[in-house]
Amino acid sequence: MNRRSFLTASAAALAATALSPDLLHAAAASAGGWTLAVADVEADIPRQTLRRLHGRAPVDLSGTLFRNGPAKFHRPGGSAGHWFDGDGMVRAFRVNEGQATLTARFLDTNKRRVDSAAGAVVTPGFGTPTGKGAQVASNDDVNPSNISVMQAGGEMWALWETGSPMVFDPVTLETKGLHTFRPDLAHMPFLAHPRVEPNGRVWNLGLFGKQAIVWRLAPGGSLEAAEPIELPRASYIHDFTATERHLVIVLQPWVQDHFAMPYMNSLTWKPELGTQILVVDKADFSQRRIFDAPPFFFFHLGDAWEEADGAIRFDAAMDVDASFATVGAVGIIQGKDIRGADPQLGLISLKPNGSVDITRAGLVGEFPRTDPRFAGANRRHTVHLTKGARDRPLMQAVAVTDWKTQKTDIHDFGPSQVVEEMVFVPRPGSSAEFDGWLMGTSINLLAGKTELHLFDARRVSAGPLASWQADVPLPVTFHGVFVPS
Amino acid sequence: MTTRRMKTAALFLSIATLHGLAMAALPLDVAHAQEAPAAASLTITFQGITKASGEIRGQLFSSEASYGGKGEAVTVFAIPVTGASVSVTVPGLAPGQYAVKAFHDVDGDGKMGANPFGMPTEPYAFSNNAKGAFGPAPWSAAAFEVAPGEAAHAITID
Fold first, then answer.
1. I want to staple A446 with a disulfide (CB 3.0 to 4.6 A). Which of A249, A416, B69, B81 is the partner?
2. Which among A126, A136, A226 has CB closest to B134?
3. Distance (Å) from the C-alpha of residue A146 to the closest C-alpha of chain B?
4. Residue A329 CA to its chain's centroid (Å)
5. Does residue A228 belong to the interface with chain B, where contact is any CB pair within 8 Å?
6. Contact A185/B3, CB-based, under 8 Å?
7. With 50 as the cut, is the pLDDT of residue A35 above it?
8. Which residue of A has its CA nearest to B2?
9. 3-state SS assignment for residue B87
C-alpha cells in the first residue's frame, strides 16, 4: 500500500471510529474529557516515584495519604449499574523528604473474585441488579470495600457502609481479610464515616432500616461497645456527626419503605417528611432529642461542636433531592453528565429552644473535612471541594470556608482537572486550628495522569505549595486519611 | 452501599430449615433404611474447617421437594468437630440424586448464630460447594449423584 492510499484508509477508519458511541467516550477520555475521572483500572499499580512538577514539600511533612474509591466498573458480560458499585482500590501516596511515591491495589473482595470469574458484574450493588452466577451468602459477599479508609492501630481498614471493614497491609496494600469485631457481630454494618475523637476513640454506626448499632472503639480499633439504638425513620444514612458529648444523626427524607432490588430502588424521596436530626447523649442513649429541619438530601457532614449556649453546629453538603444518587451517579460511569442542582455547603445550628437555623455559604460544596485535632470541639474552618464554574462536571476547585468570617478561600485548578477530597494534615508541633497543610489528589485530564497536591491550609488561594504527577491516570477516589510516619 | 436491606433471617437461607437441623440431631448410627434394597452408602466429608469446636449439623435430602422444605430429610446429623476435616457415613441409600445443607455450630449451642440484624454468623455450606444468592443454593446447583456402592462427597465449610 503506498503512502497516499494508507492515509486515505486511515482517514476512513477515523471517520468510522467517530460514529461509535463507545469509542466516542473513549476518545473523549483520551482527549482530555472528564470521563477519564471514572475510567477503569485493570491492574494494581506497583510502587512508583512521582515526578515533582513544582514547589517543595515542607521538610517536616512525612507520612502516607491513603485513599479509596471504585476503580473497575465494566466487564465484557455486563457492567456495574452505579458509580458506587465499582471494585474498591486503595492508593497510598507516601511523602518523605520531599519525595512522593504511589502504590495502588485492588481489595481482594468476594465481589471482585465472583465478577472476575463470571466476566460480568453479577454481584448486586447500590444500583446494580443481581446477575446470573452471583454468590451472596451474606452482605459481606457483596461488599466492594470501596468508600474510605481508617487507621486501626498498626492496621489499615478499607470501609464500605453495609458490611465489615476490610483489613489491608499499610505497606504492600495486600488484602488481609474482613475484620470481625466479635464473633456474634460478624457481618454487622459499619459506615464509611466513623467519627474519631481527638483522643483516638472511634464512634460509628451500622444501619438496618430503623435499627442502628452504635460502635465504640478504643484508639487502635478494639471493640469497647456495640449498642443498639432505635431511629425514628428508615433513612438512607451515609454519614453522621458528633460533638464531644453527643452523636448527631441526620435523618433525611429518603426512606426505605419497601423491598426492591437493586438497593436504591427501595428508597423513596418524601420531602413532606422534612429532615429529622436526632441528638443522642454518648454516655446515655436514652437521653435524646429530635430536631425538625427543612427537607434536604446529603451524603456528607462536617465535625460538630457545641456552643457555650448549648447550640450544636455542624456543616453539611446539602442537595435538593436524591437525584444525584439515583440518576447522576448512574450516568457518570456511562459517560453521561446528568446534572442536578449541585450540593451546597451550609452550616446547621440546632438551637436549645428546638429550632434549626441553616446558614448557607453560598457556593457549591462537597467532601467537607476538618482539623482532626478539633473533632467535636468548637472550630471555624472546613476544607471542601467546589466547582470552578457551574457548567463543569465533578469538582475542580479546593476551598476553605471560615464559618466565623463566613468567607471562602478558593483555588481553582481549571477545567482540565478533576479534584478529589482534600484532607487536613497538622503541622508537627502545632496546635492552632488549620495550622498545617491540605493534601489531596486530582486527575489531570489533559496530561491523562493523577497528581498529588499540597497546600498551606491557611493560604489555599495561593495555589499548591508543591505538586507531583504519576505516570498513570487513576479514577477519582472518595475518601482518605493521612497517617504520619 | 447496596442490598443491605436483605430479607430477614427467617427468609434468608431458610434459617428455619437450619434451626430444624439443630432441633433434630440424631445419633450418628441411626439412619433411615430405604424400603428398596440398599445399594449405596455415602460418606460426606466436611473439610477446610478452621475452628475446632462445636459440631457440623446438617441434613441429607433425596428430592428437590424435601430439600425445599416439603418433606423429610433422609437423615439429620451432628458431627463433633475435632479437626480440619470430619466425616459421616450414611448407609442404606438408594442410588440417585442427593443434596446436603449444613452449618458449623461453632459455639455448640444447637442453633445457627445470628448477628443483631439477623445475618448468620456461623459458617454454612451446601453440597457441590454451591452458593445461592440471598438464599440457599438451589437444588439444581447442590444436587449430586450417588452411585451404587460406596460413594463419597466432600464439602468445604468455614
1. A416
2. A136
3. 9
4. 13
5. yes
6. no
7. yes
8. A126
9. strand
**A-proximal residues of B, 95-124, CB under 8 Å:** 106-107, 113, 115-117, 119-121, 124
pLDDT of the residue at B23 = 43
> Is A116 in CB contact (< 8 Å) with chain B?
no
Exposed / middle / buried, residue A314 (Cβ in 10 Å: 0-12, 13-18, 19+): buried
Show the CA angle centred on residue A216, arms to residues A213 and A222, nearest 5°: 120
**pLDDT at site A11:** 47
- The ipTM of this complex is 0.87
Q: What distance in Å separates the CA atoms of residue A438 and residue A372, rounded to the nearest whole number? A: 12
Domain covering A36-484: architecture = 7 Propeller (2.130)
Residues A313/A246, Cβ–Cβ less than 8 Å: no
Residue B5 has pLDDT above 50, yes or no: no
Encode pLDDT of A423-470 as tens digits. 999 999 999 999 999 999 999 999 999 999 999 999 999 999 999 999
Tell me if B5 and A187 make a contact (CB, 8 A cut-off): no
**Chain A to chain B, count of Cβ pairs less than 8 Å apart?**
95
Among A2-16, A452-466, B134-148, which range has the highest average pLDDT? A452-466
* Residues pairing with A53 in the sheet: none
Evaluate whether A155 touches A189 at the Cβ level (below 8 Å). Answer: no
Q: Is the peptide bond before A262 cis (omega within 30 degrees of 0)?
A: yes
Would an 8 Å CB–CB cutoff place B9 in contact with chain A? no
A126 touches chain B (CB under 8 A): yes
> What is the band of A32 on the pLDDT scale with cuts at 50, 70, 90?
low
Let me know: does A437 contact A425? Beta carbons within 8 Å: yes
A444 to A37, A364, A435: CA distances (angstroms): 9, 21, 28
Q: In one letter, which amino acid is A57?
A: A
What does pTM read for this prediction?
Answer: 0.89
Contact B113 A138 (CB under 8 A): no
- Between chains, do A185 and B121 touch, taking CB under 8 Å as contact? yes
> What is the dihedral sign for C-alpha A482, A483, B2, B7?
negative
Mean pLDDT of A265-274: 98
Separation between Cα atoms, residue A284 and residue A290, nearest integer Å:
15
pLDDT in tens, A156-182: 999 999 999 999 999 999 999 999 999
Verify whether the Cβ–Cβ distance A266 to B5 is below 8 Å.
Answer: yes
